[in-house]
Design goal:
By secondary structure, the protein is of the alpha/beta class. The chain has four domains: 136 residues, GMP Synthetase, Chain A, domain 3 (2-Layer Sandwich), CATH 3.30.300; 149 residues, P-loop containing nucleotide triphosphate hydrolases (Rossmann fold); 76 residues, Orthogonal Bundle (Helicase, Ruva Protein, domain 3); 91 residues, Chromosomal Replication Initiator Protein Dnaa, Chain: A. 56% of the residues lie in helices and 9% in strands. The strands form two sheets. The chain has a five-stranded parallel sheet with strand order 5-6-7-4-8, sandwiched between helices. Strand 6, helix 9 and strand 7 form a beta-alpha-beta unit. The N terminus is likely disordered. It binds adenosine-5'-diphosphate (ADP) and magnesium ion. Adenosine-5'-diphosphate (ADP) binds next to helix 6 and helix 13.
Amino acid sequence: MSDAPTPHADSPIAIAGDSGGEEAFAPPPRIAALWGRLYGDMRTAFGDGVFRSWLRPLTLRAFYHGTLEVSVPTRFMRDWIQTHYAAQIEAMARAADAEIKGLQIVVVPTGPLVAEEEASHALAGAQASAKANENRRAEIAAIASPLDARFTFGSFVVGKPNALAHAAARRVVESAGVPFNPLFLYGGVGLGKTHLLHAIAHALEAQAPDKVVMYLSAERFMYQFVRALRAGDAMAFKEALRSVDVLLLDDIQFIAGKESTQEEFFHSFNALVDHNKQIIISADRAPGDLQGLDERLRSRLAWGLVADLQPTTYDLRLGILRAKRAQLGQEGGVPDAVLEYLATKITSNIRELEGALNRLVAHAEVTKTDVTLETTAEVLGDLLRSNDRRVTIDEIQRKVAEHYALRLPDMHSARRARAVARPRQIAMYLAKQLTPRSLPEIGRKFGGRDHTTVMHAVRKIEELMEADAQIAQDVDLLRRALAG
Ligand code: ADP
Ligand code: MG
């Protein structure tokens, strides 16, 4: 929202106290009472700050031919209210009484209207608007989720798996306009989605302090929405959401299946896009795979740029560990060999990787010993063991789909085309080899297939691995990638 008032040169509204004969149009008691209620509703709808700065002087003067005529003391105020709040006030008034058709704001000076007074009002107006902005910021902060100060671009290590997502995030911060809307980032647990969203928010706040940036986890969004509904405050919530310049929503998969929350988000999303406000969203999977999300919303989420954070590589893991070690001031304390060992062993996600390093350092400090490969194995025994064998069928499906450039749903679909069916058989084979699951369990995970289909797939792939060097190589590669 701009801070400068936009004068309405062609405004049809009468200026100065020229509404002669107003006695004849004195509002009936019913309308006067309604105005009283509306006054209270405005405070709720626009927030205390805006109300006190701008709306409190609004005075009901007349009612004629369905038009509610209200006055303010200066032209400056009239223009400001006209530009920012009049449409909504009018909508509220019309909703409150069928007889009300329109709203007219006139200027009725309370004292002598001289140029200086206008000027001093303009100044007061600017101050009030700065104050209103501050209040709005406080309102937004009360709704939003807090930002983690450590999650910045500076502490984000870039590697091949996250290069695209990182570049897109930087574009959002560096572009003068809105480069793509929305920016949709997705990837598995602990791969850096939240970190990137926070980094965007921090960078924007530092670079454009006048912008209102709101970061919300989807859970918080849901909680705040329900809370607002219960408190009869939904209007203020909607208004706050729609008044931001940048909205970041983390883990949108959590609103899947929540009808009214989705509906509310969908409307806010559209309103923000219409006003060319930047939206950034994260999820644990691609827009098309978000089951339980309204089809309209799903397709809209893919309108802008979709970028994924892929599972980490050894190089990225090592890079992150090095950066983390430097942050902890442990360059001398934790040898490279230990970092390399961790990067090889802990492949599940970055959060666990960091957790492991923290644990090692804490243990060394408490016991006043050095961090070595031996102490590492000892201190992290449980973690390393659980990372040794934790391949799931979902991971296998994801990895295989990725390797053959298929979509995840192809793993469950009934399509029989060779290009889809063969990778699916490989995934079934790997599921049998790498997980303790039974044939019927595996069949169920592949779109409800029969256990005999799985058995057939396993035999087929065993055969092919003997006969076809390419398949043998693919399977071996996948197996190693999955085993870490
Ligand atoms: P997600 O939201 O995808 O589950 P997070 O953003 O919470 O993952 O990341 C988990 C942890 O890993 C955080 O502590 C985060 O700082 C760290 N992390 C993730 N990616 C990187 C990266 N590329 N560089 C440095 N730290 C990272
Ligand atoms: Mg997260």
